[in-house]
Structures are given as C-alpha cells and as structure tokens.
Amino acid sequence: MSLVKEQSIFLLHVSELIKKAAELGYVVSGGELYRTSEQQALHVKNGRSTTMNSQHLKRLAIDLNFFVENPDGSLKLTYDVEDLRPLGDYWESLDAANRWGGNWTSFKDTPHFERREGLKTAPKPTEAQPIERAERKEGLEPITIPLPSRRTQIIATDVGPRCPNKPEDVETVQRLLNISSEKGEFDIEDKKLLPDGKFGKKTLGAITAFQRTVLGNPTPDGLVKPAGPTMAGLYNSLPTGVDTTFLSLAYLRADGQDVNEFGKRIAKVMANRNIDTPLRQAHFVAQIGHESGELRFREEVASGQAYEGRSDLGNTEPGDGPRFKGRGLIQLTGRANYREYGRAIGREEEILKKPEIVATDPELCVDVAGWYWSKRNLNTYADQDDLTTITRLINGGLNGLEDRRRLLNRARSILDV
Fold first, then answer.
1. Which of the residues in the chain have pLDDT under 70?
2. Which of 29, 198, 294, 385 could make an SS bond with 65 (beta carbons 3.0 to 4.6 A apart)?
C-alpha cells in the first residue's frame, strides 16, 4: 500500500477517534501531526526522543490533547493512562496497524496515536489480569475470571446508578442478563428483562441479583464496568459461535422474528462457503448487517430507478432498474448479476422472471450473500482483517464504512477475536 493511502486511512481513523472521545465526554484539541527531520533531531537532542525514526515524519502519527470539563465549566487536561485507556483500546481496535503510546512498555505517551505502515499482524493484546469474584457465602475460595482480550469493548461506558447508561450499552447488559437467567444461573423478577436500552429499577434489580447469586457478592453495587468483575461474569453467557443468541447481541436493531428466521440459515451458508473462522464470521456478519440494516431490510428501500439504463449492470431493457434493484442480505443488483446468480443455483429462468423472490424467499435472501462472498473471494481479505477492501468489493466504494466497522468491532468483541 502506498504511503498516501496509509495516510488517508490514518486520518479517517483519527476522525473516528475524535468522535469516540466526544462520546466519552472529552473535549479534544489538536496537538502535533507532522514533524520535520530538523524538529525530530531537536527532540533527540533534548532527550524527548531516542531515534530519528518517528511516524510523525511520515504523517502517520498525531498527538491530541484531551480535556475533562469541570462542574464550573473550566477544562482540565489529562494524561492519565487509565483515563485514556478506553480511547487507546478503541484506536487499536480500528486496525491491526494502529498503536497507542499509552501501551508502550517504557515511556507512556498517552496523547500519542500512530499507524505503522505495512503491518499486517494484529498487536498482541495487553495481558489481562484475573478479576476475583467476591467470596461465596458457602465458604468456597474466591473464583477468578480471566478477562478476555477484546470483550472489554462490547460496552463502551459504565452501566448502573449515576452512570452514562448509553442505550446500546444498557441493552447489551440486559440481553446478557437474560441469557444468564435462561441458563438457570439466577432469577430475574418477571423472568425476563425487556431489552429496551433503558436503565431502571428492574435492570438494576437484575444486576444486583446477578452480582449476589452468580458472583457471590454480599454487597452488590449494581454497577457494570466494561472491564469490571460483573461484565467478566456476564461474558460466560456469550455465545461461542454464530447462532440466534449471537445475532441478537450483534444486531441490537433487529427484530426477534427476523433473528429467528435467519439464524440457522446464516449459520448454514457460512458453513457451506467456508466462512469458518471467527474472524471470517465477524466480517461476514458485519457486512450483511450493514447491507440489510441489521436484518430489517431484505430489498433496497429506494425504487431502483437510479439503475435504469445501467449497461454495466446488464440493465438493457426498459424497467430493468426497478425490476433488478438490490435484494438479499448482500444486495444483488442488476440483470447481469441476477442472471449469474440464477445460473449458479440452476434457477436462472425463474429468477429473471421473478427477481423479487431473492428477497421474499429467506433461503435465497441469505444464500445470495454467501454466493457473492465466495464469488469475490472475500474470505482472503477477511483473513487479512481488511475491512476497507471487503467494503469496496461489496459496495463499489466506502459507503457506510463507519457502520460496518461498528458492527465488525461488536462481532469481534462477542467472538473474542
């Protein structure tokens, strides 16, 4: 990849990092982006650096200033490693080539975020420390739960009394509590929480019941932190493969009926198309999730008139644009593509005559996504964790890249990959 492309990807990631910082309540100001060789030499001379090899010289590093707003409206600059760790973890989750200075073993340069060009191997996760559960009343020894490497990212901020309680985080916790209760690990009042993303008395009661019964904590606080003991305990409820439970966690916007209808079919297609590693599965789930609005749309919402006369799609007859608009979990578009898919499954005449069945038949709706994935050899790029290339090959551009990355990170967090 050229240096200019590396720089472009780096700046896209920086913009997402700044958005994430704003979500976490930080006020961000720009620091240093580009550094000349003369400036780097001065840093070495003054002891601020030990090498002339800096990513700042390549425009692949940036230092940002993060401020916390005080009650009186004044701003306090923070360099604290633990305060900024959620941002550092988020930065490194965006791409295997990204590095945060707060994870360095020597000098902790917390404002520093960089990209290392040509790097394809994912960074080794920071070793997680075991979290001790409170001692159970029965007198057993405290139980330790190793904190998974990526699963701390499944919720962004704390859930509980006087916490941010972002709806997506609350709903994730609600669903995990329901799964744990369904396994018989503890009881929820009225048997089940409504996963509506609203933190209230019932959700608080379920959290404290989980802490008391499952974790053996005699003084539960109702608090769920991304890397805390309650979240670590809830990880035991996470599915290990792609099934309806997984999809209900990965696609919070999906209707339960759609999850149940598509769950086994998605698993079957992945098995048939060798989408058989957690990383491949995470990428596939992210792409079909974005393309279908998290299983809510089986065909393109637009009329398809924009495709009328598109000879590159094989739309050569009047009305072909609307007739062969996007359908399926990865939207099949254009007469030529419908013909090719129909021929591949031995139903060419039927599909050209009734193209809407790609949306109305749930088997075809999922199968066409697997067919396209295999046709474009997307497993190869999934193995390289190359979200950008996969998106280009599906979309023709980078439309919806941020949402695809959000879904990818969520799927990876659930599968711990």
1. 35, 37, 40-53, 105-108, 118-152
2. 29
Q: At what angle do helices 401-415 and 81-94 cross, to 10 degrees?
A: 110
Fold of 3-115: Muramoyl-pentapeptide Carboxypeptidase; domain 2 (3.30.1380)
| CA distance linking residue 258 with residue 16, whole number of Å | 31
Closest CA to 417 of 238, 244, 261: 238
In sign, the C-alpha dihedral spanning 289, 19, 100, 63 is positive
Q: So what's the pLDDT on residue 40?
A: 61
HSE-CB of 139 using CA atoms within 13 angstroms: 0
CA neighbor of 135 nearest in space, from 35, 216, 225: 216
Quick check: pTM over 0.90? no
- As a whole number of angstroms, the distance between CA 261 and CA 259 comes to 6
Query: Is 285 within 8 Å of 411 (Cβ atoms)?
Result: yes
Nearest to 55 by CA among 43, 73, 71: 43
Question: Is there a contact between 358 and 338 (Cβ–Cβ < 8 Å)?
Answer: yes
pLDDT in tens, 238-264: 888 899 999 999 999 999 999 999 999
Domain ranges of the chain: 3-115, 131-237, 244-415
Dihedral of alpha carbons 113, 116, 121, 124, sign: negative
Tell me, what amino acid is at 392? Answer: R
Q: What is the CATH code of the structural domain delimited by 244-415?
A: 1.10.530.10
| Pairwise CA distance, residues 97 & 223, whole Å | 34
Q: What are the pLDDT digits (tens) for 98-145?
A: 999 888 765 668 899 999 876 554 444 333 333 333 333 344 433 444
